[in-house]
């Protein structure tokens, strides 16, 4: 597992990755079983951030979140 938290030019970036089992993201999202992923995505969207989730069965996961720290 790797976790990176970085702040640069008023942008906060969080990257999580692991080399675990991974999963079929579209299957989890369409089944309604990915409630935790849905909640995380909704919270990032509420903060006007960006989230990217990359995973596949047998290949672990990579999650990247970007949040602006500038006050608008």
Summary of the model, kept short:
The protein has 72 residues and is an alpha+beta fold. It has a single domain (2-68), classed as Heat Shock Protein 90 (2-Layer Sandwich). It contains two helices and four strands.
Mean pLDDT metric? 94
Strand order of the largest sheet: 1-2-4-3
Shape: flat
Biggest β-sheet: count, sense, barrel?
A: 4 strands, antiparallel
The portion of residues forming beta strands comes to: 35-45%
Whole-Å distance between the termini? 34 Å
Q: What Rg is obtained from the alpha carbons, in whole angstroms?
A: 13 Å
CATH superfamily: Histidine kinase-like ATPase, C-terminal domain
**Poorly predicted tracts of residues:** none
Write the layout of secondary structure elements.
Elements: E1 2-8, E2 11-18, H1 25-31, H2 35-46, E3 50-55, E4 61-68
Antiparallel strand pairs: 1-2, 2-4, 3-4
Describe it.
The structure is a single chain. This protein is 26% helix and 40% strand. It contains two helices and four strands; from the N terminus they run ββααββ. The protein is flat. The chain is α+β, with helices and mostly antiparallel strands. A hairpin with a 2-residue loop joins strand 1 and strand 2 (11-18). It has one domain (2-68): Heat Shock Protein 90.
Keywords:
about 70 residues; Heat Shock Protein 90; 2 helices; four-stranded antiparallel sheet; about 25% helix; flat; alpha+beta
